[in-house]
Specification:
646 residues, alpha+beta, Heat Shock Protein 90, Ribosomal Protein S5, domain 2, Rossmann fold, 9-stranded mixed beta sheet, 21 helices, 22 strands, 37% helix
Length: 646
């Protein structure tokens, strides 16, 4: 018989099996329900409550939604929908209101006729908010009265009370997130406003208000868009040079699937595609976006062929050709959406593809016939993309096929690492030969590769890919990464899982870093979303007293270091020396290793994209062709600039 292992915790019997009841699973594993307990998860609580109000609006029952930020970190969400039912639920023997607030997977979205279309299909929304809040109060206006119930950490404090009379209907949920769950409770007004603005665009004819009561006078913002996605497309392309006088727009239902789409072409070359299903953003697209792309390509090819722009199938426009310079928003509403994964990043319903393809195809034929001047400009834009594609293909075959695929040696300026394991390999992209020399000498040769760049790389926001690929610095970087580029891009061939931008802490360094980030955002965006791109943080000062020294990264840190080392003595009397680093090239290899490259002590900032729409718009403004929007952006923010040289 096997001997039981010694030590504590070795028993395993019925008493070791824990049963979590009610909302306990949410408090035990909050990440399973809201993704994270950081700022994103905190704000997700608001989205969950607002989603219920949006569902009422999509059903035609609510027309006004109000979100209020109250003193003490409380949030209130109010709508004029039907109000959560308050009568006793036959199955739970509790009020329907208490059932919804305290039971996972309880709600009106699993059957019956309460909601034909809904975003929150898991039925865990408001109950999860209740579980993760220190305090919740729900006020339901229904059947001529206001019904009230309070909760503390998910537990009802009393049965539903019938209070004052009222002539309105609706639900008001006020909650205080639990400090035991969230390490930091701090509401980001911009984040809230941006999300609610988007919801107002997607739910035309519904008024959404935001009131911030945390300071007096209260700050008010309101959104109401009769144009729906037509208003949305005008918003995201504001300041762009459009080639259409009239954006394309269609809003139609087919086979019980509601389809709304709008697009416009810009003079720029990048593509912007936003897709939604039941008001939920689907960043990875899905069947609805696939249906739109198919309709766009087929309809433009049919029109171009009929009008004599193309002569045969060999000249047909590809999907990439027709999407160059395109800004499009597609939204569908359907009764049983199938999302791939808990994050709902991709829509999987095949009927959505069929419905979108059919609706857009028919509407586009009509639009092209009614707008011949716009149609001509769109086709000419696509034909220009064909020429660029053919030129880019020739350039890529020279650079990539013969390079990466046929064994051309890596760039001569690249000092590669000896490891061939991408998981432990790092590529430092360094500004200038001087810093590159120090980095090559100071690095860990086994895991760290160095690629020095000479000067500033090409601004890819203003250049097509064919011009980009003849730039020596960009060509060296593409070959070093090993992933290829554009439609040939394959992240599985990435040679380094950590790519570090290491530039000087001055204006030129910031400019080079911005050019590199533009390149990665436009042509290697998956490396950013995958968490492969980092920015090194070289120190600004070295504060030293005798053999004791510290590297610091700001003026405030410098003052603190001086104070700690001098222990209150005056600087002149303390024997403290302060060295200011102007560039990476000024550091010797040992200093560069210790301060900026040594994994044990270095500071790296991971590059992320929190808001792809805002990021895309900002890159257009700051790095694009148009001077006017860039000038206005800078002038509007000139007085609030901080740390301009870092």
């Amino acid at each position: 018989m096997a001997k039981e292992p010694e030590g504590k915790g070795s028993s395993y019997s019925a008493k070791d099996i824990y049963v979590l009841e009610g909302l306990d699973p949410v408090r035990k594993r909050p990440g399973m329900y809201i993704g994270t307990t950081d700022s994103a998860g905190l704000h997700h609580l608001i989205w969950e409550v607002v989603d219920n109000s949006i569902d009422e609006a999509m059903g035609g029952y609510a027309h006004n939604i109000r979100v209020e930020l109250l003193p003490g970190n409380k949030i209130s969400v109010d709508d004029d929908g039907r109000g959560i039912p308050v009568e006793t639920h036959k199955q739970t023997k509790k009020s329907a209101l208490e059932t919804v607030l305290t039971t996972l997977h309880a709600g009106g979205k699993f059957g019956g006729g309460s909601y034909k279309v809904s975003g929150g299909l898991h039925g865990v929304g408001v109950s999860v908010v209740n579980a993760l809040s220190e305090w919740v109060m729900v006020e339901v206006s229904r059947e001529g009265y206001v019904w009230v119930q309070e909760y503390k950490r998910g537990k009802p404090q009393y049965k539903v009370k019938k209070t004052v009379k009222t002539s309105r209907t609706g639900t008001r949920v006020t909650f205080l997130p639990d400090a035991e769950i969230f390490a930091k409770i701090e509401w980001d007004l911009k984040r809230i406003v941006d999300h609610l603005r988007q919801q107002a665009f997607l739910t035309k004819g519904v008024k959404i208000e935001i009131i911030d009561h945390r300071k007096l006078p209260a700050l008010y913002q309101g959104f109401y868009f009769d144009g729906g996605l037509l208003s949305f497309i005008k918003y995201i392309t504001e300041g762009n040079k459009l080639i259409q006088n009239d954006p394309f727009y269609v809003h139609k239902s087919l086979d019980e699937i509601e389809v709304e789409a709008s697009f416009v072409y810009n003079e720029d070359i990048e593509t912007q595609e936003l897709s939604f299903a039941n008001n939920i953003y689907t960043p990875d697209g899905g069947m609805h976006l696939t249906g739109f792309r198919s309709a766009l390509t087929r309809t433009l090819n049919d029109y171009a062929s009929a009008e004599g722009y193309i002569k045969g199938k060999d000249d047909n426009l590809t999907g990439d050709d027709v999407r160059e310079g395109l800004s499009v928003i597609i939204s569908v509403r359907l009764s049983e959406p199938q999302f791939e994964g808990q994050t709902k990043a991709r829509l999987g319903n095949p009927p959505a593809r069929t419905a979108v393809e059919s609706v857009v195809n028919e509407a586009m034929k009509d639009w092209l016939e009614r707008h011949p001047a716009d149609a001509r400009r769109v086709i000419e834009k696509c034909l220009l993309a064909v020429k660029a594609r053919k030129a880019a293909k020739a350039a890529k075959e020279t650079i990539l096929r013969k390079g990466v695929l046929e064994g051309l040696t890596l760039p001569g300026k690249l000092a590669d690492c000896s490891s061939r394991d991408p998981g432990e390999s790092e590529l430092f992209i360094v500004e200038g030969d001087s810093a590159g020399g120090s980095a090559k000498q100071g690095r860990d040769r086994r895991t760290q590769a160095i690629l020095p760049l000479k000067g500033k790389i090409l601004n890819v926001e203003k250049s097509r890919i064919d011009k980009m690929l003849v730039n020596k610095e960009i060509k060296a970087l593409v070959v070093a990464l090993g992933t290829a580029i554009a439609e040939s891009f394959d992240i599985t061939n990435l040679r380094y899982h950590k790519i570090v931008l290491m530039t000087d802490a001055d204006v030129d360094g910031a400019h080079i870093r911005t050019l590199l980030l533009t390149l990665f955002y436009r042509y290697f965006q998956q490396l950013i979303t995958n968490g492969n791109i980092y920015i090194a943080q070289p120190p600004l000062f070295k504060v030293q007293k005798g053999k004791d020294f510290r590297y610091v990264f700001s003026d405030s840190e410098k003052e603190r270091a001086v104070s700690e080392l001098s222990k209150g003595a005056k600087e002149k009397e303390s024997g403290i020396s302060i060295q200011r680093y102007k560039g990476l090239g000024e550091m010797n290899p040992e200093q560069l290793w210790e301060t900026t490259m040594n994994p044990e002590f270095r500071v790296l900032r991971q590059v992320t994209i929190d808001d792809a729409v805002a990021a895309d718009k900002l890159f257009d403004i700051l790095m694009g062709q148009e001077v006017g929007p860039r000038k206005n952006f800078i002038q509007a923010r000139a007085l609030s600039v901080k740390n301009l040289d870092i």
